[in-house]
Amino acid sequence: MPSSIIRRSVFTRSLAAPGAALLLLVALPVSAQDGEDAAAGTTEKVAILKTNMGDIVLRFFPDVAPNHVANFLKLAADGVYDGVQFHRVIPGFMIQAGDPNTKDDDRNNDGMGGAGDGVKAEFSRLPHKRGVLSMARSNDPNSARSQFFICVGNPSFLDGKYSAFGLVVEGMDVADKIVNLPRDETGSMGAIDNPLPGNPAIIEKVVIEERRLPARPDWAHS
C-alpha cells in the first residue's frame, strides 16, 4: 500500500491475516455539537470511557447501527475494554482502541487482536466528522470485532465504508490530548502512530449510565 494512503488511513490488523489493513480517517476540526438544538433532548444510554487522561462520554445511534451499538455495549459490560490502550493515534485523523492485545507489555502485536463474535457492516449516510465513533475493520467489510475509533478530524472518505454508530458528547479535549501523544511505529505496520510506553493512553474502565442529552446534530441521522 502506498505510503500516502497509509498516512491517511486507520489500520487494524487481524491475527488470521497479519497483512490486512483497516482504513480509517483524517480532516478538519469541527465541533461535535454543531447543529444541536439545546431545547430538545432525550434520556439515553451513554458510555463513559474513564481514561488516565480524563473522561470521554459517548452517545449511541441504535437507529443507525443497532448491531454495532449492541456489540459495543456487550463488550463494555463484559470488561473487554477495561485496561486497553489507544494503540493508534494520528493527529488530524483519529484515535483507535479496543484491542485486548494492548493490555500487556508486548507492543509488537498491538492492533492485531479483537474480542467478541464480530458484527456485520452497517454502513449508512452518517458522516465521519469530528467526534464521531466508528468501528475499525480489516479489508473484509464484515470483519469488525472490538476495535473502534473516534474521529478527531473530518475523514469524509470513510463515509459509507465504515460503520459509524455514535458520537462524543463530552471529552473531545481528552481525545485531542491523546492524539498528540509522542508515538513510534511499534505494532502499526510502519506508521508512526503507537503512543510510547512512557506515556500510554489507557481506558481504565467503561461505565454505562443513563443521561439526559440534547437533540442530535442535524447531520447525525441515517
Task: List the defining traits of the structure above.
222 residues, alpha+beta, Cyclophilin, 8-stranded antiparallel beta sheet, 10 strands, disordered N terminus
Question: How does this model look, in words?
Answer:
The chain has 222 residues and is of the alpha+beta class. It has a single domain (3-28, 42-213), classed as Cyclophilin-like (Cyclophilin), CATH 2.40.100. It has 3 helices and 10 strands, in the order αββαβββββαβββ. The chain has an 8-stranded antiparallel sheet with strand order 3-4-6-5-7-2-1-10. The radius of gyration is 16 Å and the shape is globular. The model is unreliable at 1-11 and 13-38 (pLDDT under 50).
Give a topology summary.
Elements: H1 3-7, E1 41-51, E2 54-60, H2 66-77, E3 88-90, E4 94-97, E5 132-135, E6 148-151, E7 164-170, H3 172-179, E8 183-184, E9 194-195, E10 203-214
Antiparallel strand pairs: 1-2, 1-10, 2-7, 3-4, 4-6, 5-6, 5-7, 8-9
